[in-house]
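Bumping with the actual sequence this time:
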Amino acid sequence: MRASEFYKIIVDEKSTVHFLQLHNLLSNDSETPNCKKYDSETKIMVRKKRLASGEQREYQSLRCVKKGCQTFQSLRQDNKFFTYTDLNNKCNSKLSLGQILELVYYWSEDMSIVTVCRLTGRSNKIVVDWYNLCRDVCCSIYENRKPMGRPNECVQIDESLLRGKRKYNRGRILLGDHRGANLTDDDSSNSDSDSENVPPNNRNRNYGKRVKGPWVFGMCWRHDGILEKCFFAVERQDRATLIPIIEKEILPGTTIMSDEWKPYKVLQNIGYNHLTVNHSEHFVDPLTGANTQTIECIWSHLKMKILRKMHGTTSELLHRHLIEAWWRSVNVQDTFLKFLNDTKNVYCN
């Protein structure tokens, strides 16, 4: 969806609600939920609210039609994605539906948090919170994904160390790396090359001895006009770690292309057609055509986003960003509308 089309949707509260009702994200006029107090019929009404800033906002709400009740309920109550419940168990979101949709639209367009803060005037905390809520939807959809591969089709696999690189071994360690232990003067003689030429008084400030970043195991499969990518943060890149992931994520009978890493040698014996390429001699095997060029290219894009654009992430959130990368790979076109459809499947079913 183009930005010009999107902003016509959120021009006011009425058009925003109508758009969400068309996509079954909010209750429509004919199917409003009953009153929670008397289980009686409710109708949608327009209310006005004055914010602390002095701005007056119109919004739609549900009102009980029973005489003696006539209490109001939030129109968002049936969709927890748009609902913020305060300590009084009431919907008290500080953002209108249009403002929430605006943040969701920017997330679907993969716009950076800094840019979104500048364009919308929202705080960094608000934008980060809504970006994390969007990833919650991706994580729920990810749990129901289907295995990769089919007979006579190819899946490329590879593993990579997700860490930053410092020019001339100087400068700050990116957040993709774990911060090294603080060094003392006694340890300086045993430090690795990354700690050389660093003054002792700076070693406690994100310099220290460098520790290898997390290993990520990746696979990609081109099918139905898309290139599906799936990534897994792993502690080790050995056979006991990688083979169970392959057996769970790739269907038997699929052709798997990889390098000549030793843990992969058993793939031929467990139901896969395994082709390898010796990278010390060729980029593409001249006899079989086996290569890992697609997955190698994918690594550069993943590292560019996580390590450079995002300046790294924590180990607790890394898997969520890897899941987001998978979701974006299978939703290349009409990303915003597809995300709304996934939101409906997660929160409205």
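The tokens above came from a reply further down the thread. The two ends are 25 Å apart (CA to CA).
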